Amino acid sequence: MFPRLSQVENRTVAEVLRAESVGGGLLMLAAVVAMGWANWPWGQSYESVVGWVPWPGGRFLGLDISVGRWASDGLLAIFFFVVGLELKREFVAGDLREPQRAAVPVVAAVGGMIVPAVVYVAFNLNTGGEALRGWAIPMATDIAFALAVLAVIGSHLPTGLRAFLLTLAVVDDLLAIAVIAVFYAGNVDFALLLSALAPIAVFGLLVQIRRTWWWALLPLALAAWLLVHASGVHATIAGVLLALTVPVLKRDTLPGLADRFEHVWRPISAAVAVPLFALFAAGVPLRGGQLVDAMTDPVALGVIAGLVMGKLVGVFGSTFAMAKLTRATLDENLSWWDVLGLALLTGIGFTVSLLIGDLAFGAGTERGEHVTLAVLVASLLAACTASVVLRLRNAAYRRAET
Predict the structure, then answer these.
(1) I want to staple 273 with a disulfide (CB 3.0 to 4.6 A). Which of 47, 49, 78, 294 is the partner?
(2) pLDDT (tens digit, 9 = 90+) per residue, 54-111?
């Protein structure tokens, strides 16, 4: 487990780490700005901007939605397109194509999603009402946020450990996408959903024959997004479906396009789409005892416990079980303390957790704000506890190198 990487894989991981680390820093900055804006003396302006409907005339297309909804439904489609490209690359040319190498991160990701959901449900079994709709909120790890923390504190940690976090996050994202599509769809219009397959198919045909005409691909992508949005399925799923049509491997003299598209769109996702989503999602006013109310809400407590404790138990426990019950062994250069720190780091849930919170309880509602605060508190706790463990391990590796 966590073996040393080949030179090619090292380069790929390094490129992704650089992009995600910068994006994670911008994400944290956007969250701080959002909280500051929402809680300054004129914080009402934040709510006004988030709730502003820039195109009220778009009602006939279902696009008379607020700035906050545009950020979650529109901008996050770019994020999920990049996730889809990464998913396909991992399954076709990365670690996930080899069952033996994929087994540990896949099992760790599954454990890291099931246990937090169980913890959340345990906290809310007797709450009643709509509380159980939020069961999936603590399931997701924010890879940009986690890698940003790892980049700051883990300069000497083995690359294999970082690659494991990336692979685990890819599987985590795949399962989160499936959960959103299956459990958080509205009243689905299957005619419109099937209609979305037409522009996706044409998009797929063009990229398969390596035609990268932006004037054709962008309108097709927009048409797919509009139809999925109108169907009642969350519009970000369109980004994933489009990405899965993009070829990864070279064929004859034709290049693979997944890396090229990822190179173009990852910076836009990391530096623009996700930070803007955070800016319009993370601002929660703390006036009038809002923080106290949130911390006494079983929903918020379930989210915090699920992310901080559930992720730790799920990821570390699954990895440890794989080592004890199978022939998998920990790389001789690593310690189980490294895995513990990594498991704590997976408790940083932000982008997808906030998105699922909005889908479960609605943006701007009292319970929705409680969930936002809970995700922020849990992410901060996970980052701090992981930093303590990984800083100690980083110091040990630095001493070993000298």
Answers:
(1) 78
(2) 988 888 878 889 999 999 999 999 999 998 898 888 888 876 787 777 788 889 999 9
The amino acid that residue 398 corresponds to is R
At 247, the pLDDT band (50, 70, 90 cuts) reads very high
DSSP 167-178: HHHHHHHHHHHH
pTM above 0.70, yes or no: yes
Question: What tokens were used for 357?
Answer: 């919170």
d(C-alpha 120, C-alpha 69), whole Å:
26
- pLDDT of 254 reads 64
Residue type, 19: A
Is the distance from CB of 236 to CB of 180 less than 8 angstroms? Answer: yes
232: number of Cβ within 10 Å: 16
Comparison of pLDDT for 152 and 314, the residue scoring more: 314
Q: Identify the three-state secondary structure at position 47.
A: helix
Query: Quick one: CA dihedral 309, 313, 319, 323, positive or negative?
Result: positive
d(CA 176, CA 171): 9
pLDDT for residue 6 is more than 60: no
The region that residue 288 occupies, defined by phi over 0 for left and psi between -120 and 50 for alpha, beta otherwise, is: left
Q: Give the span between the Cα atoms of 14 and 147, in whole angstroms.
A: 11
C-alpha 392: how far from its chain's center? Answer: 27
Longest dimension (CA), the chain: 66
CA–CA gap between residue 100 and residue 97 (Å, rounded): 9
Q: Are 337 and 393 in contact (CB under 8 A)?
A: yes
C-alpha atoms less than 13 angstroms from C-alpha of 225 in its C-beta half-sphere = 20
Bridge partners (DSSP) listed for residue 251? 254
- How distant, in Å, are the alpha carbons of 87, 142, 201, 221, 301 from that of 254? 21, 34, 20, 22, 52
